[in-house]
Design brief:
Elements (H helix, E strand, L loop, with lengths): L6 H4 L15 H14 L9 H20 L7 H10 L4 H25 L5 H10 L10 H10 L4 H8 L3 H29 L5
Helix pairs in contact: 2-3, 3-5, 4-5, 5-6, 5-9, 6-7
Length: 198
Amino acid sequence: MAAPTPFFKTIAKSFRDVPTQPGVDTVQFCDAAEGLVKIFDLFGNPAFGVVQSDLTGNIAKVRARLASHPAQSGTLEDLVSAEKVEKKKTATEGLMWLLRGLKFTAIGLRRSQQNPSEELSVSFQKAYEGSLRPYHGMLIRPLFSLAMNACPYRATFYPKLGEPEAEVQKELDEWLTGLEKIVAQMEKFYKDGGHGKI
């Protein structure tokens, strides 16, 4: 039986390859974010549907703004700035929630990578506490807690990313580094411009 295609060969764009200067390229960022949503398919549990639908819905808001105002939406920064002038916030808030979800995922996977004896459920529970939890109300928190408890075992998840392991870990590291860079850049942009807190 042929080995499955490594995960990072199945996605359209790695965060590693998304241009971030003079701003974060909107189209390529959305492509990379859609790839991230697919990583939760490897978790193999429907509890993660809530995470995936949240991310997908917010990507759609950014793409809708890009489609309606392409000239003002080449970068994420341009998109947010143009909406502010129009006194609109649909894509700005969607992007803010998307970035929070991406940050949560980045923290969970990075923590898991750095702590090889820690199960994913622990890594993602800690990631949730350090990212999304403060912004979630009492109705949403239990749904996310349920998802965190539904994380697969490391021994089940990591082989699904593909082989050879050393190559896949290198890809994961570069993907996460690119993602962390974008989140940090946009966090600063949102904070400095008074667009909200990520």
